[in-house]
Amino acid sequence: MPDRHMKYRDRPLLSPPQALGLVLGALAFLAALSPSLIPRTGVLQGAVAGLSFAALYGVGAGSGFLWTWLGLPVPSWLGERRFRLVAIVIAAAIMIYGLSQATGWQNAIHEVMGMPPVESARPFTIAAVSLVTATVILMIGRLFRRVTLISAARLDWVMPDRVAYLAGLVLAAVVFWAIGSGVILSGALRFLDNTYRRVDAFLPPEMAAPTDPNKTGSAQSLISWDSLGAQGRNRVVAAPTRADIEALTGGPALEPLRIYVGANSADTAEDRAALALAELIRTGAFDRSVLVIATPTGTGWVDPSGMTPVEFLHRGDIASVSVQYSYLPSWLSLLVEPEYGHETAQAVFRTVYGHWRKLPADSRPRLYLFGLSLGSLNSDLAADFFDIVAAPYHGALWAGPPFASRTWNKVMAERVPGTPAWLPRFRDSSLFRFTSQTNHLDIPGANWGPMRMVYLQYASDPITFFKESSLWRPPDWMNSPRGPDVSPRLVWVPVVTFLQLICDMMTATLTPRGMGHVYAATHYLDGWVAVTSPAGWTESDLARLRTWMAERDL
Asked: What residues make up the domain containing 134?
């Protein structure tokens, strides 16, 4: 009597590759080496190429599995050794061609970013890394298939063959997801969180607590120096000082007030927000002309390139407040939990705004919001327009808004038809305006309203322009005209472009300043001038400030 489970027996894990999968995988390998948004090293190129090969190989192998599940006849020639050898030769030729073009494709990205060309994209490194990456993923895929077939064989006794196949697939997916998310991913996140926590706690021996009583962490401060973390301490002692501002402007200035509360400064988001308000009151921050709620990035970092210009523009008559909520890099927080930190941002805004609103309208400071990357997303989530309509804050500068940003997505979806995704216009431009490397904020015929909201974004920033839908369709930012920092040789390929953009997000801060996710102070300057309308600055004054910031690589 024939074995009932014979049809569920799997091939060995090291069995010959599937022909269709090989050709599809090779085409994906070729496409993965083509230009994307961010330049990549040979190791990263190899990882993306190997991942892309494995993904499309899986599509080919999965198609065969689906064919079998549907009970369709399999042509005998598909299993012939000769057919497989032909597929191997074709796949090898495609991948060799891709490796030969890799250097030129990488230099296409370098060219638009003003970077020197690379002599070689390291084809042997790419080949070796991609081989290891693809092999590991394919072995996991074959193990998945084996678990599927074993599950189907057990279920075959109580359900039809095709239903057993489908149920086995679902069970295997549940098992692998539970292991991947519950064990591997959770363990990796704990490791990364602990690692970044230790980095954040590192206190350089030469960095002593400030003696100025108006600085956070001083002996008179309500917040201890040690609890600020590395990012908080750097923020408190950042440039410019009063002396810097007076030297550049040639007139009197104040020392900018920078209030910072670390994740270890209090136990809860509400407690940290209350501590921030108490420190603001203690230092007289509400007596300044300008107050900025600067929401940090995932690591607690407040970009000095973003805050230096506005402190100069208002000659130090400014206070800012920031409260840390995480240690993880923004790209990791975005992939794992897009709204990571919004509870802290909301608590800080409600607390600070609540006090500010009670002050006399003619004497309280002008209130602005600022955020870069995940700080931009959480700054946006901090305030609900329905809660502030009676007493709105004055504006916001949000740089590198992540693809998950609430308001940004709404504005992008309703942008004026025909305006590019990387430089859109929204309605009459009285509330929202966009800018990039070139200042696009002065729009003829458009007048600002009572609030001024500016988005600073680069077309080459994958953290802004990543789209889940790029898995199956080209994103809008690839349409003509493209941004000046996006290669015209970049093409969309299903699945592969999606994987490229994920890698680009992880390496988006490795570009020259003014490209990718590395925002330049001179571009922030344009945004702050538009948002806050500082008095007394001529074009020559602004040019001197640009030079000062450029000399310090801001």
From this structure: 6-197
